[in-house]
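Protocol step 4 of 6: structure prediction from sequence.
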Amino acid sequence: MNINSDEIEITTCASPYDPPIGAHLGVKIRHLKLNIEVTSTDQKSQHKNHMAAMEKLKSELAKFELVKSRFVDIDEDDLMDGETFRNELNSENSD
């Protein structure tokens, strides 16, 4: 999955491995259009945190696309009113 660089905002953040000089090793990436934000602070280098955060973002975007595709595939025949749904739940629980 390719992520366009103008769709994201990358910032640094505090990490348990920050050196005493005040540099931040953690990386926070936010997808601007979807407002999905991921953070990585587990690695001992900013580069590794950047790579880990990008992998997390790709994973979150894949989940988003999966959910989106499932909603796109729903048609009106797949929907039921709340009372019918409740009755089906109750009949399954009473078995």
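Step 5 (inspection) to follow. The longest strand covers residues 8-13.
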